[in-house]
Every structure is written in structure tokens, then in C-alpha cells.
Specification:
With 188 residues, the protein is mainly beta. The chain is 12% helix and 55% strand. The mean pLDDT is 91.
Length: 188
């Protein structure tokens, strides 16, 4: 029943738009997680004539230590294990331009600490995220570059972030930035 409450409005939103034009499909890769020992993939759809895009993503990466060890968290390391997000983004008019929107992220986190070899703290979190970015087509084809920034807040966690009795003190607002490389399928 809960899935139907989420899926039916998404299908209705995607069904809007000009019936003569097909929806525009997007496929994106995020090279930054790949550099950090993981992956980042996203697939989305933008109904014909609509400024809105809905997408799903999966990603995993080792978070850079300077980002993890802020605020007295020296010695901690963080791995985002295979995780997922749902994105809703609004694109402003024009082939290139600004975008805003949000995401709901489900993260599977693994913390380790230098002073506790072999120990780990595994937990899951849910966090909403606000996003702003820019959509740029460097060529006439469907290829695009999309840098964006986001701010997320923790809404739910399955456990406290701790490793062998050492508590991780996370930021109340989690910043994030990346650059996605994408392709618009069905672009005319």
C-alpha cells in the first residue's frame, strides 16, 4: 500500500505533457565516486514539455577523510555502501541553465576508526536534501555536464554512529557537491 502511494503520483506526474512528444530520458554518471573507489549512476525521465525531471540513483564511495574528520572526529573513516536516492529537479527554460530541486537519500554507512582495527559501525540513514545546480551542453548532441551542490539534514537513523565505543559527531547539515556527466536520450 505504501509503494502505491508513492508510485501512483509519480506515474501521474510523468503522464502529463504533450502526448505527441515522447518523454526525455536521462542517464548520468558521477565520476567523483569512481575516483573514490565506488560508483554513481542515475536514470531519470522528463515528461515532454515539462520543466520537471524525476530520477533514481545508486551510488557508493569512500568519503574523503577531511570531510569526515571535521569537528573533532579525528581518526574516523566513512564508506557509503551501495545506497539510493530519488530526485525531483526543476529545470529553468533554455537548453543550458539553472536547476533546483530536492532528493530523498537512503544511505548505508560504514564507519571505521584508526584506534580500533577491524571494528566498524554500520548504520542506515534517511535524509532529505535541497539541490541547486547548472545544466550545460558543451556540444549540440545530448551530452551534458551538470555541477550541483546540496544540503541535507538527517531525518532518521537506524543506530548511533559509533565504532568500538567511539562516537562520531556528525554535522547537523550535511553539504555535498559533485559534477554529473549525462546524456539526454530522445533529444531533438
Amino acid at each position: 500500500m505504501h509503494r502505491a502511494a508513492i508510485v501512483l503520483p509519480l506515474v501521474a506526474a510523468l503522464a502529463t505533457g504533450a502526448a505527441a512528444d515522447p518523454p526525455q530520458l536521462h542517464v548520468e554518471a558521477d565520476p567523483l565516486p569512481l575516483i573514490r573507489g565506488g560508483y554513481g549512476l542515475q536514470v531519470g525521465v522528463r515528461p515532454a514539455g515539462s520543466p520537471w525531471r524525476i530520477a533514481v540513483a545508486s551510488f557508493a564511495l569512500d568519503v574523503p577523510d577531511p570531510a569526515v574528520q571535521v569537528g573533532g572526529n579525528d581518526g574516523f573513516h566513512l564508506r557509503v555502501r551501495p545506497s539510493a536516492a530519488i530526485y525531483v529537479l526543476r529545470y529553468f527554460p533554455g537548453r543550458d541553465g539553472w536547476l533546483v530541486g530536492g532528493a530523498l537519500r537512503y544511505l548505508r554507512l560504514r564507519y571505521t576508526h584508526d584506534d580500533a582495527p577491524g571494528a566498524r559501525g554500520d548504520l542506515s540513514t534517511v535524509s532529505p536534501e535541497l539541490i541547486a545546480g547548472y545544466h550545460w551542453h558543451p556540444t549540440r548532441a545530448g551530452f551534458y555536464v551538470q555541477p550541483w551542490v546540496g544540503l541535507a539534514v538527517l531525518a532518521w537513523t537506524s543506530a548511533d554512529a559509533a565504532v568500538d565505543g567511539r562516537a562520531y559527531d556528525g554535522l547537523p547539515i550535511q553539504p555535498f557537491a559533485t559534477v554529473n556527466l549525462g546524456w539526454e536520450l530522445g533529444r531533438r
